[in-house]
Design a protein that fits this description.
It is a single chain. The termini are far apart. The chain has 294 residues and is of the alpha/beta class. The chain has a seven-stranded parallel β-sheet, sandwiched between helices. Strand 1 (18-22), helix 1 and strand 2 (42-47) form a beta-alpha-beta unit. The protein has helices at 27-38, 50-64, 78-92, 115-142, 157-160, 166-185, 204-210, 215-218, 233-244, 262-267, 281-293, and strands at 18-22, 42-47, 68-72, 97-100, 148-153, 191-198, 255-258. The structure holds hexanoyl-coenzyme A (HXC) and NADP nicotinamide-adenine-dinucleotide phosphate (NAP). Hexanoyl-coenzyme A binds next to helix 4 and helix 7.
């Protein structure tokens, strides 16, 4: 029986926690928010589009029976992030977790980008994560909160880099550096910082911008992945909930890759030998062994 797309943690694992999810109205943010609610958390979902957020909040409340607050906030603006934090505290009286998930991205040859296009991605991903982290971190330090968790969504090209998504790769690399830096610096204030690096998890937001038109059919993402499948939203939600929960209390400064082995397949020097047919290996072995005899 397939189990990877089933909820993993026991009921009540996030009971009483208040978690803010940026970009929580759609895609992976929505999937992770759903699971946090199912595990007993109260969730604030925020992004630019308040209508979308309100619809999602209603849908998730009906589905899970949990409490969701929808707050409009463009993470590029520090004043809006402070207002989002204030709205969270007004509604729920506290906040325990921040999931920096909001992002912007599209494929483009870098030389085609205007300066503003490059800035737009850096501003959403890197500056947005910085804005939320700084506002929430200062708050937690000010009130001497004993325990708080920040989880950042990056991607595997945060460390490999990637052509055609250079602003996103640049920004996600910065987010990863921020995660590891603050994991050390702010541990003394009771905060933990971790990151998740997902490989391909189909969402409308990502696929419309990264695989538009027939690129979806031309580049079958599954072929790039040793496990020959894309990710299921629930398996990402399982990992995110674990890293948000007290069960991961001793994990700090880590980035967990969840990509079916995709980035390593692209990296290993001889991984291309996967395409050598089984029946050729006898001959290849013979050729190699014969060299020793001479
Ligand atoms: C070149 C482009 C462009 C394109 C926009 N621009 N799209 N340039 N090619 N396809 C330029 C614009 O002309 C403008 O520059 C600048 O970028 C800002 O564009 P706006 O449309 O004004 O920006 P805004 O309304 O803020 O929208 C931001 C956005 C948009 C990033 C462009 O796509 C968005 O809202 N995205 C949010 C959701 C998203 O991207 N989700 C995917 C995440 S997937 P000028 O110079 O003309 O002013 C992801 C996965 C990674 O991160 C890993 C996968 C495995
Ligand atoms: P998505 O649905 O497009 O999610 C992006 C979210 O960010 C949207 O809800 C969007 O909402 C919000 N957002 C964008 N700009 C914002 C801004 N300026 N301020 C506040 N919110 C903003 O795409 P997704 O695939 O779920 O991506 C979620 C996260 O996973 C991202 O960090 C992405 O980099 C990461 N990721 C995804 C994949 C994948 O395969 N899907 C792989 C690796 C990493 P509004 O438009 O309403 O603002």
């Amino acid at each position: 029986m397939v189990k990877f797309n089933k909820p993993m943690l026991k009921e009540g694992s996030l009971d009483g926690d208040v978690i803010v999810v940026t970009g929580g109205g759609s895609g992976l943010g929505k999937a992770m928010s759903t699971y946090f609610l199912e595990l007993g958390a109260k969730v604030v979902i925020s992004s630019r589009n308040i209508e979308k957020l309100k619809n999602t909040a209603k849908e998730l409340e009906e589905k899970t029976g949990g409490k969701v607050l929808a707050v409009q906030c463009d993470v590029r603006h520090y004043d809006q992030v402070e207002a989002m934090l204030a709205a969270t505290l007004k509604e729920f009286g506290k906040v325990d977790g921040l999931l920096n998930n909001a992002a912007g991205n599209f494929i483009s040859p870098t030389e085609r980008l205007s300066s503003n296009a490059f800035d737009t991605i850096i501003d959403i991903v890197l500056k947005g994560t910085k804005n939320c982290t700084l506002a929430f971190g200062k708050h937690w330090i000010d009130i001497k909160q004993k325990k708080a968790t920040v989880l950042n969504i990056v991607t595997t090209y945060a460390w490999t880099g990637s052509a055609y998504v250079v602003p996103s790769a640049t920004a996600k690399a910065g987010v990863l550096a921020m995660t590891r830096s603050l994991a050390v610096e702010w541990a003394k204030y009771g905060m933990r910082f971790n990151a998740i690096a997902p490989g391909p998890f189909p969402t409308k937001g990502a696929w419309d911008r990264l695989l538009p038109g027939d690129l979806k059919d031309k580049f079958d993402m599954k072929k790039k992945i040793p496990l020959r499948r894309v990710g299921e939203h629930q398996e990402l939600a399982n990992l995110a909930a674990y890293l948000m929960s007290d069960f991961s209390s001793y994990i700090n400064g880590e980035v967990v890759t969840i990509d079916g082995g995709e980035w390593l397949q692209g990296a290993g020097e001889f991984n291309m030998l996967e395409s050598v047919p089984q029946e050729m290996w006898d001959m290849l072995e013979m050729m190699i062994r014969s060299k020793k005899k001479k």
